[in-house]
Amino acid sequence: MSQYQSFFISAGGNSAQCDELNHFLRSHVVIRTVENIISSGNNCGIQILVEYKDVGVSNQQDKKNAKIDWRASLATDEQRAIFDRLKEIRLEISKANKLTAAYVVCKDEHLVAIITKPDITAEEISELPNSKNIMLKKFAHQLYEEYQKIKKEMQDKNVTENEGDFDRLNHRNFELNHRETANNQLENENKDEAGNIPF
Asked: Is the full-model pTM beyond 0.90?
């Protein structure tokens, strides 16, 4: 049976709020999340509604079949985008090596571990826990290389977007300054000799 929990993360990025949410997500089977941006007064941030099922289910079979939504445990849209890209790459690796399934390369929890530790090394990837019966050691270097490429692409994209924002802001400031100067000139032209503006 599904249950619901609501969380609020302030725009200031309160780490205690993030830790509380991440701890909750790790300890429950997440069915889905719904995010809503709140931008009213002092309560700017994101409201997150989590539909979940407790991991501590009593039935042993339910425990076996319980699936954790590892993607939902990631904190940012950028991390989730990287997760999606790494899943695609994992699938490509499994197909190229004629493996039975993508999870044979690595599990979703390994992708999350890679993403949440930005400075992870290929050696650390190969030694991630819960990798028995999969080929993580064999493909660790390839996953590391692909992860680095994705991070670089994302950084380049962010820089380009920021430069575009900067250019638009500069152009807007130029327009405002130009209008202000024109208004001042017009005002000065309309003043009479005593410096008063005629009505």
From this structure: no
